[in-house]
Amino acid sequence: MTPLPAVRPRRLRRTPGLRALTREVSLSPAQLIFPMFVHEGEGDSEISTMPGVLRHCLASAVERAREAQALGVRSVILFGIPDEKDEVGTQAYAEDGVIQRATRAIKAELPETVVIADTCLCEYTSHGHCGHLHEVAGHWTVDNDPTLDLLARTAVSQARAGADIVAPSAMMDGQVAAIRAGLDAAGFGHVPIMSYAVKYASAYYGPFREAAGSAPSVGDRASYQMDPAGGLREALREARLDVEEGADFLMVKPALAYLDVLRAVREEFDLPLVAYNVSGEYSLVKAAAQLGYMDERRTVLETLTGMRRAGADAIITYHALDAARWLAEGV
């Protein structure tokens, strides 16, 4: 007769109370960051590739931030959609730019909400790239060093508008150091930098580019965003450089296909770590749920929990408000 097992892990899974008591990984609304697209026109518009996500007018952005706060989601990250674009993204660092105006409006009404400003130029340039564009040997690329000044100017204007955190996402070499120096010189030494330290040239960004109107008109971003096959050493090198330059947070983007990278960064560095659950990851779940292929609630919460288990302290996710509601109902 086969001996019965003395150790029975199932004992601790028997009831919801036992499962809740022994969980190693927690997920709460306070760990979620809600991304919002803000445009300069009137009213809201739907984003066809991201069901349930809107381009907000200023008034609507304030109300959605209020809704998030009521659900326990205390942080938002803002992406601007300007009326006018030019070759150097002037509206990114304009004092009356759409993100600057949205930040002032949200902080005036909801001072406890943490406003994170995405610090980049791609939504503001006529060519859709993240800085000064030039051609080298028949290939279009971004001229790194002149772009640093524009990113620093953008960060300072966002801090002046009241942003609690600036989040550089352009993947320019030296961007954290340039922004840190610019903020400090302008009297914003208290404003932290959430660096998109490990950001891949990913197919998962497709819906975002439709939402923000930021698809490159020439070339692509592979010369400055990371190669998905680059490996862990490049990821750790990028993160280490940002730590040395003064980053206060590190981010891995996208999250779901890069959980190994997220874990490696977590084990190597002790800064707060953010995972970006990006637009394509959101849209895949939405599409499958609409077709009846997956349970949206269970899939979203399992995905976000997986990111937390891999090491994320916070998660940027378009599911944030729905996830907060589901968490309030009990898992």
Automatic annotation (TrEMBL):
GO molecular function terms attached to this record: porphobilinogen synthase activity; zinc ion binding
Record-listed 5-aminolevulinate 1 binding positions: R209, R221
Catalytic reactions of this protein: 2 5-aminolevulinate = porphobilinogen + 2 H2O + H(+)
Entry GO terms, CC: cytosol
InterPro entries hit by this protein: ALAD (IPR001731), ALAD_AS (IPR030656), Aldolase_TIM (IPR013785)
Signal peptide: none
One Gene Ontology term from the biological process aspect of the record: protoporphyrinogen IX biosynthetic process
Chain residues that bind Zn(2+): C120, C122, C130
Keyword Magnesium belongs to the record: yes
Binding site for Mg(2+): E238
Family according to the record: Belongs to the ALAD family.
Quaternary data: Homooctamer.
PANTHER family in the record: DELTA-AMINOLEVULINIC ACID DEHYDRATASE
Protein known as: Delta-aminolevulinic acid dehydratase
Record organism: Deinococcus reticulitermitis
